[in-house]
């Protein structure tokens, strides 16, 4: 269980995280919907240990993460733009985290080959990142983040730069692998449909405050999320465009 209590962060007089609390059971995905500038990235970076908080605590399985440095925290932040090692092949990018952890070579080989299959990137294993498409690069970054089974995966608009088709295929891939590897994740998105698709639980962030809902229905029903309006819009559009002979 990930337990976050009363996180607070301000830049001068500007409060960016305002008493943020949540509990997320292991293996669940929390979809966090919010507009630009509401503090979503700050929340994820705080969890990853990439910035210092003014107050609050972060616990994993009852253990405090507050004094644990970022590289030992195993709460991995996945950037919107995939950050890969440009001089390493896809295979070596995937193997990197396992090699740092000094896993036996046979295990590294076996895990990377399996991950290449999961990502459908077998034929690209020896390519450098610059020879991949944006969607393929994002898949490598995703695979590299989950291959060593981090405690929590922190996804910051991970598919925002992809075209609609690649985005849909990444969403399906994320859902399949999240279930298979029992991934605990915070998935931040601007997109209502994406939030509904990937989340087991739902939250809405505005002006540094995080509202966590007790159910999907409660998330949809809250007018501030804009979910109901957007669903109504798509439904109206569908009715308008339905072909009637
Ligand atoms: N280092 C910093 N110094 C001062 N203000 C900052 C700093 N980092 C972020 N902010 C401010 O904090 C607020 C929240 O930023 P954050 O990056 O968390 O937003 P966000 O919700 O992720 O937005 P977006 O969706 O546009 O990425 C913004 O108003 C931003 O300008």
CATH architecture: 3-Layer(aba) Sandwich
Number of strands: 10
What form results from the Cα inertia axes?
A: globular
**Ligand set:** adenosine-5'-triphosphate
- Low-pLDDT stretches are none
Text of the CATH class: Alpha Beta
N-to-C SSE series? Answer: EEEHEEHEHHHEHEHEEHH
Contiguous helical run count: 9
Tell me the fraction of residues in β-strands, as a range. Answer: 15-25%
CATH-defined topology: Rossmann fold
Distance between the terminal alpha carbons, to the nearest Å?
54 Å
CATH superfamily: P-loop containing nucleotide triphosphate hydrolases
The biggest beta sheet reads:
6 strands, mixed
Label the structural class.
Answer: alpha/beta
Protein name: Putrescine transport system ATP-binding protein
Organism: Pontibacter chinhatensis
GO molecular function: ABC-type ferric iron transporter activity; ATP binding; ATP hydrolysis activity
Domain ABC transporter: 2-232
Describe the structure.
The protein is globular and about 55 Å long. The chain has one domain: Rossmann fold (3-Layer(aba) Sandwich), CATH 3.40.50.300. A hairpin with a 2-residue loop joins strand 9 and strand 10 (209-212). Helix 3 (90-100) packs across helix 4 and helix 3 (90-100) packs parallel to helix 5 (134-146). A six-stranded mixed sheet has the order 6-7-8-3-9-10, with helices on both faces. A four-stranded antiparallel sheet has the order 2-1-4-5, with helices on one face. The protein has helices spanning 40-48, 70-73, 90-100, 105-118, 134-146, 164-180, 192-198, 216-221, 227-241; strands spanning 2-11, 14-24, 29-34, 55-60, 63-64, 75-78, 152-156, 185-189, 201-206, 209-212. 39% of the residues lie in helices and 24% in strands. It is of the alpha/beta class and 245 residues long. Adenosine-5'-triphosphate is lined by residues 11, 16, 34, 36-42. Residues 11, 16, 34, 36-42 line the site of adenosine-5'-triphosphate (ATP).
